[in-house]
Amino acid sequence: MADFVFYKQLINHLDSSILVLDEALTVRYLNPAAEALLQVSGRRCVGVPAEMVFLDVQQDLQTLEDSLQQETSFTKREAEVRLMNQQVITLDYSVSPVEFEKTMCLVVEMHPRDRLMRISREEELITAQATTQALVRGMAHEIKNPLGGIRGSAQLLERMLENAELKEFTQIIIDEVDRLRNLVDKMLGPNKLLERLDTNIHEVLERVHSLISVESEGRLRLRRDYDPSIPEFLADKEQLIQVVLNITRNAMQALLAQESPEYFPEITLKTRAIRQFTIGHTKHRLVLHLSIIDNGPGIPDNIRESLFFPMVSGRAEGTGLGLSIAQSIVNQHQGIIECDSAPGKTQFSIYLPLELSLDDYQSQAQKNIF
Question: What digits encode the pLDDT tens for the residues 22-63?
Fold first, then answer.
């Protein structure tokens, strides 16, 4: 008995999540790590059927029964598991039959994958953004040089012409060159250092709320879901307004383009504070999670992976620069934008560190400025 208590204490201190099922596939034990992962209380779950606590949505209970009867182990990678609160999480788990007091039981060892998958996805997004910025910077240099020559030549030609009608054509050349130059400058994103001041994120959202309310003319519902405990932080307020406005305006345009009597268009602006959160390679003590959620048709599959690249747009009249610029601004704040979209719900998540110092911001801004 002393050995049993000792081994139980060891299991209770493991980082791995351990779940034990008996012959009837009911819960007999969870260690604290499993309680946290499955978001349940160990005492309340003892005697509860396994499918209420741990249900692989892609695999029925027959696999667990086969493992028990045939005394064989198996492992599942990146499985989607539904919890008691109906939330679905992704994890790796291994099932091993073990004999205890002359009866067989199953030991399920679980490792969460959501956090690792998200960090990996963020690293890919940050790398892709840096690569895109380098390509755009090189392309802008190659484009703007000949544009300057074309504009100068058109101006010289205009001075030599006496016919006013012919001067009209040279003016068209100059105007189109200027338009292309402005387009290239927009692709490069912000070209100045951040003006870092104490910023209240809800003042930013209220400005966007007012602008979208006027533009939508009452044709959609705007909801607020704010966490008032979020502190002020150093940021460029005007550029953050541009970020949130670009994303919210895109959502508004997608919603209003749909003529469906089944639902009323709705956008939710939501803020939450997250502790001990990793952005890229850096773990932050406190992070702002700003969500912009709409109930529209979702983002087309063919542009979902390249959504934050320049010149990528789901609308025929769109420039495809809004999200690219937004991502660039958030990167300068050492944050990141992510998107999760499905028909009926699209959510853009903006993550911004809340504890950065002035020196941290200045260092990051110097790296991102063109």
Answer: 888 899 888 888 888 888 887 788 888 888 888 887 776 788
**Integer CA distances (angstroms), 93 to 33, 54, 167, 300, in order:** 14, 11, 74, 33
Share of the chain above pLDDT 70, in %: 77
HSE-up of residue 291 (Cα within 13 Å, Cβ side): 19
pLDDT score recorded for residue 270: 95
Residues 6+ apart with CB under 8 A from 271: 201, 202, 205, 225, 226, 227, 230, 288, 289, 290, 291
State the Cα–Cα distance between residues 209 and 219, nearest whole angstrom: 14
Q: What is the amino acid identity at position 334?
A: Q
State the pLDDT at residue 100.
Answer: 78
CA 116 from centroid of its chain's CA atoms? 14
Place of tokens 């205009």: 158
**Structure tokens belonging to residue 190:** 């912000």
Rounded mean pLDDT of the chain? 80
> Residue 336's beta-bridge partner residues?
351
As a dihedral over the C-alpha atoms of residue 64, residue 65, residue 68, residue 73, rounded to 10 degrees, the angle is -30
Widest pairwise Cα distance in the chain? 107
Residue corresponding to tokens 């790398």: 127
- The whole-number pLDDT of residue 232 equals 92
Backbone angles phi, psi at 60, to 5 degrees: -80, 180
Cβ neighbors of 186 (< 8 A, separation 6 or more) are 319, 321, 325
Q: How many CB atoms lie within 10 A of CB 354?
A: 20
Predicted confidence (pLDDT) per residue in 258-314, tens digit: 766 567 899 999 999 988 787 877 778 899 999 999 998 888 877 776 676 665 555
Alpha helices of 39-194 — where are they, by DSSP H?
42-45, 50-53, 62-70, 114-160, 164-188
Q: Which residues of 222-231 are buried (b: 16+ CB within 10 A; e: fewer)?
A: beeeeeeebe
Distance in Å from the first CA to the final CA of the chain: 68
365 neighbors 193 (Cβ within 8 angstroms): yes
Which has the minimum average pLDDT: 116-125, 262-271, 319-328?
116-125
Enter the tokens of residue 161: 């012409």
